[in-house]
């Protein structure tokens, strides 16, 4: 069966050094750009987390892409203490 790709695009909002911590629009813009480019070069695995504040932008790009859900691998983290 299918195997999850070993390499994933990270989507941590702290990677976008030109965005202020509270500048949600800037973070979303970078996340959309990164996701579009990741798909363009053949990436199919994206690592996310609620705390990254990038999930909505990533979902937006994925919904517009030509790839089916079955083509993509999304990983995330559970917020808070377990």
Outline the secondary-structure elements.
Blueprint (H helix, E strand, L loop, with lengths): L8 E2 L13 H17 L4 E3 L7 H10 L8 E3 L7
Key phrases:
82 residues; alpha/beta; three-stranded parallel beta sheet; 33% helix; 10% strand
Word description of this protein:
- The protein is of the alpha/beta class.
- Strand 2, helix 2 and strand 3 form a beta-alpha-beta unit.
- The longest helix has 17 residues.
- It is globular, with a radius of gyration of 13 Å.
- The model has no long low-confidence stretch (mean pLDDT 90).
Average pLDDT reading: 90
Q: How many DSSP helices?
A: 2
**Largest sheet, order of strands side by side?**
1-2-3
**What string, H for helix and E for strand, traces the elements in order?**
EHEHE
Number of strands: 3
Amino- and carboxy-terminal Cα gap: 31 Å
């Amino acid at each position: 069966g299918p195997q999850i790709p070993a390499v994933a695009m990270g989507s941590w909002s702290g990677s976008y050094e030109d965005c202020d911590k509270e500048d949600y629009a800037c973070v979303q813009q970078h996340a959309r750009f990164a996701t579009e480019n990741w798909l363009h070069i053949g990436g199919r695995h994206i690592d996310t987390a609620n705390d990254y504040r990038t999930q909505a932008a990533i979902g937006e790009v994925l919904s517009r892409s030509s790839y089916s859900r079955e083509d993509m691998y999304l990983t995330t983290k559970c917020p808070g203490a377990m």
